Amino acid sequence: MTTRAAQRAETRRALLDEGRRRFARDGYHAVVLEEVARGIGVTKGAAYHHFGSKAGLFRAVVAEAQDRIGAGVAAAAEAHDDPWDQLVAGCRAFLAAGSDPEFQRIVLLDAPTVLGWNEWREMDEASSAAHLGEALSAVMAAGTIARQPVEPLTRLLSGAMNEAALWIAGTPDPAASVNAAMEALTRLLDGLRS
Amino acid sequence: MTTRAAQRAETRRALLDEGRRRFARDGYHAVVLEEVARGIGVTKGAAYHHFGSKAGLFRAVVAEAQDRIGAGVAAAAEAHDDPWDQLVAGCRAFLAAGSDPEFQRIVLLDAPTVLGWNEWREMDEASSAAHLGEALSAVMAAGTIARQPVEPLTRLLSGAMNEAALWIAGTPDPAASVNAAMEALTRLLDGLRS
DNA sequence: GCATTCACATACCGTGGGTATGTGAACGAC
DNA sequence: GTCGTTCACATACCCACGGTATGTGAATGC
């Protein structure tokens, strides 16, 4: 006798994992929900029971992936005390983690069009972009860079790093590209110092 | 008696226009090819005859939209003689033109996932991103900013502006947001000056 | 022990992309 | 001018897949 709550949690987790694998490998549209379910030994009905729709499962997968990246960025930043070092460490952590093909396909490519850009942006701001904005506010408060509106700058840098992550993954030597992107980004940030 | 070549060109053009309208309004997946065709008084068969697939029509629409933006950016840049002024004018032109909802939905949101990021990037580099790279090379050659690898910086700035364009269109006052984004971008670029 | 809830399974429908084939008008050769 | 060919579509059809409505049997609460 397995309790219902445990069974429910197990199935939900298995759907999330299998969905993430397939969404990352094939892209949202090419994924067929029935195969996701069959892949873990259940039927389509289970997926609809848990997530309501194909987009619902995808949304949950996106949220988990974003949270994971956001947590990694936050952890990298918190290893430093100086706000400036936190900002730079966070950026580097994002570029390294963001070049993961699973994250790219799901969060950077498919999510904005499947969920709509507004919802994607809200989710993004709830995870990694929020940290970026806070880090920028901190370096301004510390006087390291000139005070200026945070939001436009955040979106510029967020977009820059998202695109850089996609670029990095497509290069022959991603590790070297992370450094190249990071150098260019550092030059941009350094230029802001007052 | 209308000649076949003329008829062909006319139908092709009408499909491109109607497709662009619908792709922009409803998004790629929500568009049904038969309705695009019916919208201009032909059937699905015509669309397949001309473009081979739904993605084929979309690809052609994307190419035209990118060319249009690229031409606008180039024109804005060529109004100036100084490489630095050309760079700044091109960026502003892109931000203003890129906040057009048609361009956003088609080129920035749907195209990367429908056509694949690699093909999207190739098309992007063939139009607007190429101009950005050339402008950056020019200001380095002129000694206005320090010499550095062009490609990472181009991708960072290209991504920054794409994201900024999406952000701008979602704000209550897009015209003001263009200025805000442009100020932030100018600060970043100014920081690179040697 | 009995009614209820719940976590799915099963059966079914509609939509829409793709394809195979038909057709009539323009076209080139004579 | 006419005759066979080409071509720009139209027509008819297939089927994959998302969604829904309903069934079912085991856990749960009283």
Automatic annotation (TrEMBL), chains A, B:
Gene3D superfamilies xref list: Tetracycline Repressor, domain 2
tRNA-binding found in the keyword field: no
DNA-binding region: 32-51
Record keywords, A-Z: DNA-binding, Transcription, Transcription regulation
Presence of the UniProt keyword Transcription in the record: yes
Ranges of residues in domain HTH tetR-type: 9-69
Signal peptide from the UniProt entry: none
PANTHER family membership: HTH-TYPE TRANSCRIPTIONAL REGULATOR BETI (PTHR30055:SF234), HTH-TYPE TRANSCRIPTIONAL REGULATOR RUTR (PTHR30055)
Record-given protein name: TetR family transcriptional regulator
Organism lineage string: Bacteria, Bacillati, Actinomycetota, Actinomycetes, Micromonosporales
